[in-house]
Design a protein that fits this description.
Layout (H helix, E strand, L loop, with lengths): L2 E4 L78 E8 L2 E8 L9 E7 L5 H4 L4 H11 L2 E7 L13 H19 L2 E11 L1 H10 L11 E4 L14 H6 L2 E6 L13 H14 L5 E6 L9 H13 L1
Parallel strand pairs: 4-5, 4-6, 6-7, 7-8, 8-9
Antiparallel strand pairs: 1-9, 2-3, 3-5
Helix pairs in contact: 2-7, 3-4
Length: 311
């Protein structure tokens, strides 16, 4: 069974945790294992979102539209709506990155939400959107939300969000403020964030520490999300009272294996503890028994978070 705690100013954990092994971002230690994109000639196959936590009888579990790699040829993608477009480019302050906007069939006559999903190191969720990203798009669409998957402007061999955190955060927040919110009919009260591994680190160290006014419907840190030294900006009473902040990590994701050397458990515990101590009232920490860095129920996590924020 998972161990779960809600923010009450005294967050603790009883699952297997090695707190002394928690990573500090400033050390430059690798935050997640390498993840490489698929070769461009690989073709998409059927996707079952039960792999990512949806129930077999959930109509979203077998999405009819699988997002493939055709964007490499410059094509656009939209599962059922008119707003999707793959591999758009955004320049800001000397940095250049790309992003997908995935429309799974939103109704623009109703308020349209936005889900920002930050990839892990290596950017596989961006480069190969046929698996996890397809399922997250199906979940977002069921809540009448667009899914945006940006690729960090980091040009290194193993692209990360965290190695140039300040610059990448500036690029990312400009992308949302100056591009996404200007080009698409987004309800600013319905902006959800989700980050995996290195993307969770960008959320906890970067977005939640400062420009959290862009997080209006909660954030989920999956497989990581450590503690910053301090908040860059003071949180409002409303943010502290009602912003869902979830840290969800596999209990076995403790950095003890060669394939997953990042201790995501310690990072998640430290991150949740920090925001709880800062006074945020809707902090949840969950360690999933039997799960590691590579088998998290991401689609269910997003669905649960969006349901929670809508209540």
């Amino acid at each position: 069974m998972p161990t779960r705690h809600s923010g009450d100013g005294s967050l603790s954990i009883t699952a297997r945790v090695s707190l002394g092994a928690a990573l500090v971002l400033a050390t430059g230690t690798a935050l997640s294992p390498l993840i490489f994109p698929l070769d461009s000639d690989e073709e998409s196959t059927a996707v079952s979102c039960t792999t990512y936590g949806l129930a077999a009888d959930d109509p979203r579990a077998e999405p009819a539209q699988i997002i493939d790699a055709s964007y490499r040829a410059g094509s656009t993608y939209s599962a059922a709506g008119d707003l999707g477009e793959m591999a758009q480019t955004y320049h800001h302050n000397g940095l250049t990155g790309q992003y997908h906007v995935i429309d799974g069939g939103v109704n623009t006559n109703e308020p349209v939400g936005l889900v920002m999903h930050l990839h892990g190191d290596g950017a596989r969720e961006y480069h190969d959107p046929s698996g996890r990203t397809t399922c997250l798009a199906a979940v977002a669409a069921s809540h009448n939300a667009l899914l945006v998957v940006p690729r960090t402007p980091d040009r290194a061999q193993d692209p990360t969000w965290w190695e140039n955190l300040d610059g990448n955060r500036d690029w990312l927040t400009s992308l949302v403020n100056d591009q996404i919110l200007q080009e698409y009919p987004i309800d600013r009260d319905r902006i959800t964030w989700m980050g995996y591994s290195g993307g969770a680190e960008m959320l906890s160290y970067g977005i939640l520490a400062g420009p959290r006014d862009l997080v209006t419907a909660g954030a989920a840190m999956v497989g990581g999300g450590g503690a910053p030294e301090a908040l860059d900006t003071v949180a409002t009473e409303s943010q502290m009272a009602s912003m869902p902040l979830w840290w969800i990590t596999g209990e076995e994701d403790d950095g003890s294996t060669e394939s997953a050397p990042f201790d995501a458990v310690s990072a998640a515990v430290a991150g949740a503890d920090f925001y709880d101590d800062e006074g945020f009232q809707d902090v949840d920490l969950e360690l999933l028994a039997g799960h590691d860095h590579y088998d998290m129920p991401d689609a269910k996590i997003l669905d649960d978070l969006m349901k929670s924020a809508a209540r």
